[in-house]
Amino acid sequence: MSNIVVQKFGGTSVGSEERIAAVAKIIKKASEKDSLVVVVSAMSGETNRLINLANSFGENPSKREFDALISTGEKVSAALLAMALHQIGVEAKSYTASQISMRTTDSYSKAKILDVDGKKIEETLDAGIVPIITGFQGITDSGDVTTLGRGGSDTTAVAIAAQMKAKRCDIFTDVDGIYTTDPRIVPEAKKLDSITMEEMLEMSGQGAKVIQIRAVEFANKYKVPVRVLSSFESGNGTLITLEDNNMENGLVSGIAFQKNQIKFTLHGVSDTPGMAYGILGPLSDANIEVDVIVQNVSVNGKTDFTFTVSKEDEAIATDVINTVKESLEFDDLLIDSNIAKVSLVGVGMRTHAGIASTAFKALSEKGVNIQMISTSEIKITIVINENNVDNAVKALHTAFKLEE
Amino acid sequence: MSNIVVQKFGGTSVGSEERIAAVAKIIKKASEKDSLVVVVSAMSGETNRLINLANSFGENPSKREFDALISTGEKVSAALLAMALHQIGVEAKSYTASQISMRTTDSYSKAKILDVDGKKIEETLDAGIVPIITGFQGITDSGDVTTLGRGGSDTTAVAIAAQMKAKRCDIFTDVDGIYTTDPRIVPEAKKLDSITMEEMLEMSGQGAKVIQIRAVEFANKYKVPVRVLSSFESGNGTLITLEDNNMENGLVSGIAFQKNQIKFTLHGVSDTPGMAYGILGPLSDANIEVDVIVQNVSVNGKTDFTFTVSKEDEAIATDVINTVKESLEFDDLLIDSNIAKVSLVGVGMRTHAGIASTAFKALSEKGVNIQMISTSEIKITIVINENNVDNAVKALHTAFKLEE
Questions:
Q1: Is B114 an 8 Å CB contact of chain A?
Q2: Whole-angstrom distance, CA of residue B43 vs CA of residue B147
Q3: The predicted structure's pLDDT at residue A151
Q4: What is the mean pLDDT of residues A171-189?
Q5: Radius of gyration (Cα) for chain A, nearest Å?
Q6: Choosing among B56, B60, B132, which should be mutated to test the A contact, i.e. which has the most A CBs within 10 A?
Q7: Cα(A283)–Cα(A309) distance, rounded to whole angstroms?
Q8: Cα first-last separation, chain B
Q9: Mean pLDDT estimate for chain A
Q10: What is the number of structural domains in chain B?
């Protein structure tokens, strides 16, 4: 195990000159104990400022140019953080994706990391200098700049941690850890000291906005322990563990929820082989992430096929469905934009029965009607009316005694 | 002669989304006739915004990080200009210094261009795409980002024009050409259709802020014809010619002047070998550009050594002189910060006598006292009281009939 720790600081953590100076102090302190590699996001607001500039030139700017444009934000914060470290006597050097050969696929704005050359980082560490690396971006084989999509800096940090065989990747953000659910809805929500990768994957996908899901997948694949903690206050945050070492693990670890969802139902669609692909294939081609998918048993060769997508994809998804209507026959397209998802997550679910019934009992007592149910080994997701979300989350949090 | 024209757009030319759209139209029109390579500066105000951010972290930020920081401005404008061109149907691609291997020395913030790889530019042109290149910056052999100093985008443009054997380099700015003198002082000042490189070198050095002197030197060395013109209004600008083709050339082409100068006189300095170097060497080491230098004949082994520098270098220059005082003996250090330089420039001077006497007669008639005189083959520079500059420039402009 190396002595390397990767620290990643998000946009709000480096959102002003004062915040950058505060982050420099965190790095200085940590550098006395560990060998640090730092990854930074753009100063909060900067990426949006750049996007607004781009929007002056049409709705669909060239993706290559768009990435070249918005990747400048991290270059700014990386250089500033290096300066802030110099000011308090810490040697540091900023590096761009191109300078450390952070190679990605060439799918602009949602590029995937292929590999990273650890040599320059290693040389820098060997010289007693803290490398500050621009998050969120990479380069293609032909040297064009790419970006990894929103929140991609988390993935950058984990990728570098994997490459450098770091003992841990610390994701600094503006919350102090992962909670059993959103404390704004349930004031009794409790910070978790640790959570398993699997649970985190399910939580992340369901809208726990603390860390990007791709980063957790990456961490899972390369077995990098990740810690989520605050750059605004001290504390140990929440450790995302590789394995579930906690024998006393509760049944449910947390409750995630996500509003701004939209539900499409293809009513009376022919239940023939290839039907699901005929719907989901074109949606995937249009880069729409489909979330909960439910298909009921078929009656007389016809069935109802229902799926949810993020509300911002409504227009494109509707277009896609109308296009496939020519090849797929269905009676009606029903669209419900007044829905939300709530998920119970916990590795404890694997070995315990009765979770679903406890949950449904709690919800029915609050008069919450369940529209869709989808389950996996460690997660139960329900789709309900958006207006019921707060009540549902509170009821479930109490039912599973998460405040204890 | 190739059909390539390099167009460079300065900070005010791309100072807003509207300006970038206007520049895109200029490029579109010119691209119908010539093969274009475009070089851009940062949007006006952007470099200062970045410098202000850097200033939060001490007075002397690391030059490497400083360059990494401020070089982001051109990356932003290059990507935006490419988008603006796409919007009006012109294919374009932005390139950073790293992407076209614009190699420089590693003296950060004042790097000098070593060479540039024309291959990517050529391929882009061959594909019918307009390459948009970030001005002002380069990379070192180890891949670090450098900048060329203020106004360096002009030099970038000329370097690329030289590499690509362009038939011309057009420098777009916010003035419509080079004038016989500053029209704000002399309303009758006339725009020159052409000016020789040599004259331009002298004009530029004396404060004609239209184009950077290094760029003209570069153009001179590689025989690149340069044209200075406005991106705000149409017109042919002023062509900076390689040779003086104009038989009817007047005696004086223009009058340049520069305020904010300061004059140092080492009174009663020992006139021994190495004295001048003993003064100018340390000033050069401190990166201070010394301008007019005058040394009078010596009397009794002692002389007066006088030079001028820009007023902003006053503090450092004074420090340097006080340091050399230990090794060089002199009686007094006289500092006059109320001076200005005025220069008559013209290749016609070479072959005509009597320029100096005409000039001095005009000045004496206006009661302007001359403090220092320095002459070269195509220039006469005088140092006068700063308050006399406007009168002196007007008198000289009339005396040499420049308004005709």
A1: no
A2: 16
A3: 72
A4: 89
A5: 23
A6: B56
A7: 10
A8: 35
A9: 89
A10: 2
